[in-house]
Amino acid sequence: MTQVPTDGEPDAPQAPPAGAAPRSPLLDRPGAVAGDGLDASVALHYGDPMREQRMLDEGLGVVDLSNREVITVSGVDRLSWLNSLTTQLLLDLPPRESREALVLSPKGHVEHSLHLVDDGEMTWITTEPGAGAALVAWLERMKFMLRVEVADVTADWAVLGEPHARESVAGEPLAWRDPWPDLVGDTTAYGPVEDHPGSVRAWREVIMPRADLVAAVGDRPVAGLWAAEALRVAAWRPRLGLETDHRTIVHEVDWLRTAVHLHKGCYRGQETVARVHNLGRPPRRLVFLHVDGSGHVLPPLGAEVYAGERVVGHLTSVGRHHTDGPIALAIIKRNTDPELDLLVGGLSAAQTVIVAP
Predict the structure, then answer these.
(1) Do the beta carbons of residue 331 and residue 285 sit within 8 Å?
(2) How does residue 12 score in pLDDT terms, banded at 50, 70 and 90?
Protein backbone atom coordinates (compact mmCIF):
# COMPACT_ATOMS: atom_id res chain seq x y z
CA MET A 1 0.00 0.00 0.00
CA THR A 2 1.05 3.58 -0.65
CA GLN A 3 3.33 5.06 1.99
CA VAL A 4 4.63 8.62 2.12
CA PRO A 5 8.35 8.28 2.94
CA THR A 6 9.26 9.20 6.51
CA ASP A 7 12.42 11.03 5.48
CA GLY A 8 10.89 13.01 2.61
CA GLU A 9 12.62 10.94 -0.10
CA PRO A 10 10.95 8.09 -2.00
CA ASP A 11 12.31 4.63 -1.58
CA ALA A 12 13.80 2.95 -4.65
CA PRO A 13 11.01 1.29 -6.67
CA GLN A 14 10.77 -2.46 -6.31
CA ALA A 15 9.49 -5.02 -8.79
CA PRO A 16 5.75 -5.65 -8.49
CA PRO A 17 4.70 -8.90 -6.83
CA ALA A 18 3.62 -11.85 -8.94
CA GLY A 19 0.06 -11.40 -10.15
CA ALA A 20 0.13 -7.60 -9.81
CA ALA A 21 -1.36 -5.33 -12.46
CA PRO A 22 0.80 -4.65 -15.55
CA ARG A 23 3.10 -1.64 -15.56
CA SER A 24 1.16 1.46 -16.49
CA PRO A 25 2.23 3.36 -19.61
CA LEU A 26 1.57 6.55 -17.63
CA LEU A 27 4.83 5.83 -15.79
CA ASP A 28 6.51 7.08 -18.97
CA ARG A 29 5.23 10.58 -18.26
CA PRO A 30 7.90 13.18 -17.34
CA GLY A 31 8.70 13.21 -13.63
CA ALA A 32 6.86 9.98 -12.81
CA VAL A 33 8.14 8.20 -9.69
CA ALA A 34 6.89 4.64 -9.35
CA GLY A 35 5.66 3.15 -6.11
CA ASP A 36 6.76 -0.16 -4.68
CA GLY A 37 5.09 -3.45 -3.81
CA LEU A 38 1.47 -3.43 -4.98
CA ASP A 39 1.88 0.19 -6.12
CA ALA A 40 4.95 -0.48 -8.29
CA SER A 41 2.95 -0.37 -11.52
CA VAL A 42 1.72 3.21 -11.03
CA ALA A 43 3.13 6.59 -10.01
CA LEU A 44 3.36 7.97 -6.50
CA HIS A 45 3.79 11.43 -8.00
CA TYR A 46 4.92 13.23 -11.12
CA GLY A 47 7.44 15.57 -9.55
CA ASP A 48 5.29 17.91 -7.44
CA PRO A 49 2.89 16.12 -5.05
CA MET A 50 1.57 19.34 -3.48
CA ARG A 51 0.69 20.90 -6.82
CA GLU A 52 -0.95 17.64 -7.90
CA GLN A 53 -3.00 17.59 -4.71
CA ARG A 54 -4.19 21.17 -5.11
CA MET A 55 -5.17 20.34 -8.67
CA LEU A 56 -7.35 17.43 -7.52
CA ASP A 57 -8.87 19.61 -4.81
CA GLU A 58 -9.93 22.01 -7.55
CA GLY A 59 -11.63 19.23 -9.51
CA LEU A 60 -8.92 18.95 -12.15
CA GLY A 61 -6.71 16.14 -13.39
CA VAL A 62 -6.76 12.38 -13.23
CA VAL A 63 -5.07 9.70 -11.07
CA ASP A 64 -3.66 6.45 -12.44
CA LEU A 65 -5.35 3.69 -10.42
CA SER A 66 -4.58 0.95 -12.92
CA ASN A 67 -3.15 -1.21 -10.13
CA ARG A 68 -6.68 -1.68 -8.79
CA GLU A 69 -8.13 -5.03 -9.76
CA VAL A 70 -11.23 -5.39 -11.92
CA ILE A 71 -13.70 -8.27 -11.64
CA THR A 72 -16.88 -8.90 -13.61
CA VAL A 73 -19.95 -10.91 -12.66
CA SER A 74 -22.34 -11.85 -15.45
CA GLY A 75 -25.54 -13.89 -15.59
CA VAL A 76 -29.19 -13.24 -14.79
CA ASP A 77 -28.78 -14.05 -11.08
CA ARG A 78 -25.80 -11.74 -10.55
CA LEU A 79 -27.44 -8.95 -8.50
CA SER A 80 -29.57 -11.17 -6.28
CA TRP A 81 -26.52 -13.40 -5.71
CA LEU A 82 -24.22 -10.51 -4.79
CA ASN A 83 -26.99 -9.11 -2.61
CA SER A 84 -27.06 -12.35 -0.61
CA LEU A 85 -23.29 -12.35 -0.09
CA THR A 86 -22.54 -8.75 0.81
CA THR A 87 -23.53 -6.01 3.24
CA GLN A 88 -25.30 -3.79 0.70
CA LEU A 89 -28.77 -3.90 -0.87
CA LEU A 90 -28.20 -4.66 -4.56
CA LEU A 91 -31.57 -5.99 -5.71
CA ASP A 92 -32.91 -4.16 -8.77
CA LEU A 93 -29.83 -1.94 -8.91
CA PRO A 94 -30.33 0.42 -11.89
CA PRO A 95 -27.64 0.49 -14.58
CA ARG A 96 -24.79 2.94 -13.90
CA GLU A 97 -25.84 3.55 -10.30
CA SER A 98 -22.88 2.95 -7.98
CA ARG A 99 -22.82 1.00 -4.75
CA GLU A 100 -20.19 0.12 -2.16
CA ALA A 101 -20.40 -3.31 -0.53
CA LEU A 102 -18.32 -5.35 1.90
CA VAL A 103 -17.75 -9.06 2.37
CA LEU A 104 -17.51 -10.01 6.03
CA SER A 105 -16.22 -13.09 7.79
CA PRO A 106 -18.70 -15.28 9.72
CA LYS A 107 -17.69 -13.30 12.83
CA GLY A 108 -18.33 -9.97 11.14
CA HIS A 109 -14.76 -8.93 10.35
CA VAL A 110 -14.15 -7.02 7.12
CA GLU A 111 -12.60 -9.24 4.42
CA HIS A 112 -13.28 -7.54 1.06
CA SER A 113 -14.32 -4.12 -0.21
CA LEU A 114 -16.26 -3.93 -3.47
CA HIS A 115 -16.69 -0.80 -5.58
CA LEU A 116 -19.62 -1.98 -7.66
CA VAL A 117 -21.58 -0.72 -10.66
CA ASP A 118 -23.81 -2.60 -13.11
CA ASP A 119 -24.11 -1.79 -16.82
CA GLY A 120 -27.44 -3.57 -17.28
CA GLU A 121 -25.85 -6.80 -18.48
CA MET A 122 -22.82 -7.25 -16.24
CA THR A 123 -21.71 -6.16 -12.77
CA TRP A 124 -18.28 -4.53 -12.61
CA ILE A 125 -16.29 -4.57 -9.38
CA THR A 126 -13.03 -2.85 -8.61
CA THR A 127 -11.09 -3.83 -5.52
CA GLU A 128 -7.77 -3.16 -3.83
CA PRO A 129 -4.46 -4.09 -5.47
CA GLY A 130 -3.61 -7.68 -4.58
CA ALA A 131 -7.13 -8.51 -3.36
CA GLY A 132 -8.68 -9.71 -6.60
CA ALA A 133 -7.53 -13.34 -6.62
CA ALA A 134 -8.84 -14.06 -3.13
CA LEU A 135 -12.16 -12.36 -3.90
CA VAL A 136 -12.63 -14.29 -7.14
CA ALA A 137 -11.75 -17.58 -5.42
CA TRP A 138 -14.32 -16.95 -2.69
CA LEU A 139 -17.02 -15.92 -5.16
CA GLU A 140 -16.38 -19.06 -7.20
CA ARG A 141 -16.92 -21.19 -4.10
CA MET A 142 -20.26 -19.48 -3.46
CA LYS A 143 -21.81 -19.96 -6.91
CA PHE A 144 -23.61 -23.27 -6.23
CA MET A 145 -26.26 -23.73 -8.96
CA LEU A 146 -26.88 -20.06 -9.69
CA ARG A 147 -26.59 -18.56 -13.16
CA VAL A 148 -23.52 -16.40 -12.61
CA GLU A 149 -20.03 -16.24 -14.07
CA VAL A 150 -17.09 -14.54 -12.34
CA ALA A 151 -13.99 -13.30 -14.17
CA ASP A 152 -10.84 -11.43 -13.20
CA VAL A 153 -10.33 -9.01 -16.09
CA THR A 154 -7.53 -6.92 -14.57
CA ALA A 155 -5.14 -7.82 -17.39
CA ASP A 156 -7.43 -6.13 -19.92
CA TRP A 157 -9.27 -3.46 -17.93
CA ALA A 158 -7.95 -0.58 -15.84
CA VAL A 159 -9.14 2.22 -13.56
CA LEU A 160 -8.59 5.97 -13.60
CA GLY A 161 -9.51 8.16 -10.63
CA GLU A 162 -11.24 11.48 -11.28
CA PRO A 163 -12.21 14.26 -8.82
CA HIS A 164 -15.84 14.27 -9.94
CA ALA A 165 -19.02 13.26 -8.11
CA ARG A 166 -21.35 12.20 -10.89
CA GLU A 167 -22.38 8.83 -12.19
CA SER A 168 -21.39 7.90 -15.72
CA VAL A 169 -23.93 8.27 -18.51
CA ALA A 170 -24.59 6.33 -21.69
CA GLY A 171 -21.93 6.92 -24.30
CA GLU A 172 -19.02 7.26 -21.86
CA PRO A 173 -17.00 4.63 -19.97
CA LEU A 174 -18.65 3.05 -16.95
CA ALA A 175 -17.67 4.68 -13.65
CA TRP A 176 -18.07 3.97 -9.96
CA ARG A 177 -18.95 7.11 -7.99
CA ASP A 178 -17.71 7.15 -4.41
CA PRO A 179 -20.75 7.70 -2.14
CA TRP A 180 -18.64 8.75 0.85
CA PRO A 181 -19.71 10.20 3.26
CA ASP A 182 -23.43 10.03 2.39
CA LEU A 183 -25.79 7.68 4.20
CA VAL A 184 -26.74 5.13 1.54
CA GLY A 185 -30.05 3.35 2.08
CA ASP A 186 -31.27 2.11 5.46
CA THR A 187 -28.13 2.65 7.52
CA THR A 188 -26.55 4.84 10.17
CA ALA A 189 -23.41 6.84 10.90
CA TYR A 190 -20.94 6.35 13.74
CA GLY A 191 -19.36 9.70 13.00
CA PRO A 192 -20.77 13.16 12.18
CA VAL A 193 -23.36 13.63 9.45
CA GLU A 194 -23.39 17.41 9.22
CA ASP A 195 -20.18 19.22 8.22
CA HIS A 196 -18.34 15.97 7.50
CA PRO A 197 -14.97 16.77 5.84
CA GLY A 198 -15.59 14.08 3.24
CA SER A 199 -18.50 16.06 1.81
CA VAL A 200 -16.09 18.31 -0.08
CA ARG A 201 -14.22 15.42 -1.71
CA ALA A 202 -15.62 14.37 -5.08
CA TRP A 203 -14.32 11.07 -6.42
CA ARG A 204 -15.08 8.39 -8.96
CA GLU A 205 -13.30 5.46 -10.65
CA VAL A 206 -13.62 5.18 -14.42
CA ILE A 207 -13.29 1.65 -15.84
CA MET A 208 -11.82 1.34 -19.33
CA PRO A 209 -9.85 -1.02 -21.55
CA ARG A 210 -6.23 -1.04 -20.38
CA ALA A 211 -5.10 -0.40 -23.95
CA ASP A 212 -6.98 2.93 -23.88
CA LEU A 213 -5.30 4.41 -20.77
CA VAL A 214 -3.04 6.87 -22.54
CA ALA A 215 -5.75 8.03 -24.93
CA ALA A 216 -8.26 8.40 -22.08
CA VAL A 217 -5.92 10.70 -20.16
CA GLY A 218 -5.03 12.69 -23.26
CA ASP A 219 -3.62 16.09 -22.37
CA ARG A 220 -5.23 16.21 -18.94
CA PRO A 221 -2.83 16.82 -16.03
CA VAL A 222 -2.02 13.73 -13.96
CA ALA A 223 -1.64 13.36 -10.21
CA GLY A 224 -0.03 10.53 -8.27
CA LEU A 225 -1.17 8.28 -5.44
CA TRP A 226 0.32 10.53 -2.75
CA ALA A 227 -2.00 13.37 -3.76
CA ALA A 228 -5.10 11.17 -3.89
CA GLU A 229 -4.28 9.46 -0.59
CA ALA A 230 -3.75 12.73 1.29
CA LEU A 231 -7.21 13.88 0.22
CA ARG A 232 -8.70 10.53 1.21
CA VAL A 233 -7.16 10.82 4.68
CA ALA A 234 -8.47 14.38 5.02
CA ALA A 235 -11.94 13.04 4.14
CA TRP A 236 -11.70 10.35 6.89
CA ARG A 237 -12.38 7.75 4.20
CA PRO A 238 -11.49 4.17 5.32
CA ARG A 239 -9.61 1.87 2.94
CA LEU A 240 -9.37 -1.90 3.00
CA GLY A 241 -5.95 -3.14 4.12
CA LEU A 242 -5.03 0.17 5.72
CA GLU A 243 -7.84 1.08 8.11
CA THR A 244 -8.70 -2.63 8.41
CA ASP A 245 -6.94 -5.64 9.88
CA HIS A 246 -8.02 -9.21 10.64
CA ARG A 247 -10.37 -8.08 13.45
CA THR A 248 -11.92 -4.90 12.08
CA ILE A 249 -15.69 -4.56 12.30
CA VAL A 250 -17.50 -1.96 10.22
CA HIS A 251 -18.60 0.18 13.17
CA GLU A 252 -14.99 0.93 14.15
CA VAL A 253 -14.26 2.82 10.92
CA ASP A 254 -17.73 4.35 10.31
CA TRP A 255 -18.22 2.16 7.22
CA LEU A 256 -21.90 1.49 7.81
CA ARG A 257 -22.81 4.86 6.31
CA THR A 258 -21.92 3.92 2.71
CA ALA A 259 -21.55 0.14 2.62
CA VAL A 260 -24.02 -1.53 5.01
CA HIS A 261 -27.80 -1.82 4.69
CA LEU A 262 -29.19 -2.63 8.13
CA HIS A 263 -32.42 -4.36 7.08
CA LYS A 264 -31.63 -6.07 3.76
CA GLY A 265 -31.82 -9.69 4.93
CA CYS A 266 -29.24 -12.27 5.87
CA TYR A 267 -25.60 -12.23 4.82
CA ARG A 268 -22.43 -13.58 6.34
CA GLY A 269 -21.40 -11.56 9.41
CA GLN A 270 -24.78 -9.86 9.78
CA GLU A 271 -25.23 -11.03 13.37
CA THR A 272 -22.16 -9.09 14.52
CA VAL A 273 -23.26 -5.97 12.64
CA ALA A 274 -26.71 -6.08 14.23
CA ARG A 275 -25.51 -6.98 17.73
CA VAL A 276 -22.99 -4.16 17.97
CA HIS A 277 -25.39 -1.68 16.41
CA ASN A 278 -28.28 -2.59 18.73
CA LEU A 279 -26.57 -3.51 21.97
CA GLY A 280 -23.14 -2.02 22.28
CA ARG A 281 -20.25 0.02 20.95
CA PRO A 282 -17.21 -1.11 18.97
CA PRO A 283 -14.04 -1.93 20.93
CA ARG A 284 -11.91 0.40 18.79
CA ARG A 285 -12.51 3.64 16.91
CA LEU A 286 -11.06 5.45 13.92
CA VAL A 287 -9.49 8.82 14.74
CA PHE A 288 -8.09 11.65 12.62
CA LEU A 289 -4.70 13.05 13.64
CA HIS A 290 -2.91 16.31 12.99
CA VAL A 291 0.73 15.28 13.35
CA ASP A 292 3.50 17.65 14.43
CA GLY A 293 5.33 18.52 11.22
CA SER A 294 8.09 20.71 12.66
CA GLY A 295 10.72 18.04 12.07
CA HIS A 296 9.67 17.33 8.47
CA VAL A 297 9.38 13.64 9.31
CA LEU A 298 6.30 11.47 9.12
CA PRO A 299 5.70 8.37 11.24
CA PRO A 300 5.51 5.07 9.34
CA LEU A 301 2.36 3.07 8.76
CA GLY A 302 1.69 0.73 11.65
CA ALA A 303 3.50 2.93 14.16
CA GLU A 304 2.16 2.52 17.69
CA VAL A 305 -0.02 5.31 19.04
CA TYR A 306 0.56 6.27 22.67
CA ALA A 307 -1.56 8.03 25.27
CA GLY A 308 1.13 8.92 27.77
CA GLU A 309 3.15 5.72 28.22
CA ARG A 310 0.30 3.42 27.22
CA VAL A 311 -0.07 2.01 23.70
CA VAL A 312 -3.67 2.64 22.59
CA GLY A 313 -3.57 1.85 18.88
CA HIS A 314 -1.68 2.08 15.62
CA LEU A 315 -1.33 4.37 12.61
CA THR A 316 -3.23 3.22 9.51
CA SER A 317 -2.71 6.00 6.92
CA VAL A 318 -0.52 9.08 6.72
CA GLY A 319 -0.04 11.92 4.25
CA ARG A 320 1.02 15.52 3.75
CA HIS A 321 -1.93 17.79 3.05
CA HIS A 322 -1.39 20.92 0.98
CA THR A 323 -3.00 23.14 3.63
CA ASP A 324 -3.13 21.09 6.85
CA GLY A 325 0.38 19.61 6.74
CA PRO A 326 1.01 16.11 8.14
CA ILE A 327 -2.25 14.24 8.73
CA ALA A 328 -3.08 10.65 9.56
CA LEU A 329 -5.75 8.12 10.44
CA ALA A 330 -5.33 5.70 13.32
CA ILE A 331 -7.27 2.94 15.03
CA ILE A 332 -7.27 3.37 18.81
CA LYS A 333 -9.02 1.86 21.82
CA ARG A 334 -12.54 3.19 22.19
CA ASN A 335 -12.11 4.45 25.76
CA THR A 336 -9.06 6.60 24.95
CA ASP A 337 -9.71 10.12 26.25
CA PRO A 338 -10.67 12.20 23.17
CA GLU A 339 -9.19 15.33 24.78
CA LEU A 340 -5.68 13.88 24.98
CA ASP A 341 -2.89 14.72 22.59
CA LEU A 342 -1.41 11.43 21.44
CA LEU A 343 2.10 10.42 20.44
CA VAL A 344 2.99 8.48 17.31
CA GLY A 345 6.54 7.82 16.17
CA GLY A 346 7.75 10.22 18.85
CA LEU A 347 5.64 13.03 17.40
CA SER A 348 2.73 14.83 19.04
CA ALA A 349 -0.62 14.21 17.33
CA ALA A 350 -3.81 16.12 18.09
CA GLN A 351 -6.87 13.91 17.65
CA THR A 352 -10.21 14.71 16.08
CA VAL A 353 -12.98 12.28 16.94
CA ILE A 354 -14.43 10.36 13.97
CA VAL A 355 -16.17 7.44 15.65
CA ALA A 356 -17.60 8.56 18.96
CA PRO A 357 -16.17 6.90 22.12
Answers:
(1) yes
(2) very low
User: pLDDT digits over 283-305, tens only?
Assistant: 999 999 999 988 788 999 999 99
Rg (CA), the chain: 20
- For residue 311, give the amino acid letter: V
3-state secondary structure 182-245: CCCCCCCCCCCCCCCHHHHCCCEEEEEEHHHHHHHHCCCCEECHHHHHHHHHHCCCCCCCCCCC
Query: What distance in Å separates the CA atoms of residue 292 and residue 103, rounded to the nearest whole number?
Result: 36
Q: What SS3 class is residue 288? A: strand
∠ Cα 280 101 300 (to 5°): 75
The angle that helices 225-234 and 49-57 make with each other, rounded to 10 degrees, is: 50
Q: DSSP letter string over 83-111?
A: HHHSSS--TTPPTT--EEEEEE-TTS-EE
Instruction: Identify which of 121, 122, 104, 105 has the alpha carbon closest to the alpha carbon of residue 113.
Output: 104
Distance linking the first and last C-alpha atoms of the chain: 28
Three-state DSSP at 261 gives coil
